[in-house]
Structures are given as structure tokens and as C-alpha cells.
Amino acid sequence: MAKSLAELKAIREKKLNEINLRHGKNGYRVVVGMATCGIAAGARPVMVKLMEEVAAKNLVDVTVAQTGCIGSCRLEPIVEVYGANNDKVTYVHMTPEKIVKVVDQHLIGGKIVDEFTMTIVDGKIVDPEIKA
Q1: Cα Rg for the chain, rounded, in angstroms?
Q2: Residues contacting 43, CB < 8 A, separation 6+
Q3: Between vectors from CA 87 to CA 66 and to CA 127, what angle results, nearest 5°?
Q4: Is 106 left (phi over 0), alpha (psi -120 to 50) or beta?
Q5: What's the burial of 27, exposed, middle or buried (CB within 10 Å: 0-12/13-18/19+)?
Q6: CATH superfamily of domain region 5-131
Q7: How far lies 62's CA from each of 23, 41, 90, 94, in Å?
Q8: Distance from C-alpha of 109 to C-alpha of 120, rounded to nearest angstrom
Q9: What is the pLDDT along the chain (132 residues), one digit of tens a residue?
Q10: Domain ranges (residues) in the chain
Q11: Which residues contact 21 (CB under 8 A, 6 or more apart)?
């Protein structure tokens, strides 16, 4: 049986609320792109380091997950951080070293690490290395 758009929106909202309950009102959901493009670019060590940092720093309000292709293969490895209000920050060209800084500054300190984010100008993605 096909679902209506309203039913699909209700299911999505319910699942987002469940995720928010799991990682706390002020927590984060961190998603790593683990499609073939991400893995080829080095997403696996980024994911491992992220899980290690979250565990070592006992960040109980942080949920770590993986997803398939995020859609910007040339920017892989990509890590997306969702806040409690479901706002999203997309980090690109991530490395295990960069993930440490994101954990310390963003997940613990609440400050976005702008130097690792992508920017959209006139509908086009501007690579972080280019915007500097």
C-alpha cells in the first residue's frame, strides 16, 4: 500500500524525534558518507577516529552513523553534523586529524570549524581549499 505525502512526513518526523531522544536535547547526530566514493577517499579511518574520539571523551549525547553517497564525491570524505534542531553542517575533505578538531571544537565546544566546511556561492559548491 502506497503512503501519502502526509504519512511519509509523519514517519520522518517520528524517526527524527526518536533520533533526537537518543542523542539528547542538546546532542548531535554525526553522519559519515561511507559509499564507495567515500571509502576510496579515506572515510573508513575518519569513521574509526570519530568513534574513538566520541568514546574516549564519553560524549553520550553524540550519535554516530554512516550513510551512503551524500552526493558530492569530489569533496569526500564528508561528515555531516546535525544539531538538536536538525540544523546541518557539512564538513568536507575530512581526515582523522581534522575529525579530532571537529570533535573538540564543534561537538564539545559548540563552535563550527569553518575551515573544513563547504560553501555554496551562486548555487555552486566552493571547495574549502579554494575559499581560503
Answers
A1: 15
A2: 32, 33, 34, 76, 77, 78, 94
A3: 70
A4: alpha
A5: buried
A6: Glutaredoxin (3.40.30.10)
A7: 5, 24, 16, 18
A8: 25
A9: 677 888 888 887 776 666 555 544 568 999 999 999 999 999 999 999 999 999 999 998 899 999 998 888 889 999 999 987 778 999 999 999 999 999 999 999 999 999 999 766 566 666 666 554
A10: 5-131
A11: none
d(CA 52, CA 110): 19
pLDDT at 132: 46
Give strand pairing partners of 85.
Answer: none
Length of the chain, in residues? 132
Q: Which amino acid is it at 94? A: M
- All three cell numbers of 63, joined, read 550519535
Sequential DSSP letters for 14-54 = HHHHHHHHHT-TT-EEEEEE-SHHHHHHTHHHHHHHHHHHH
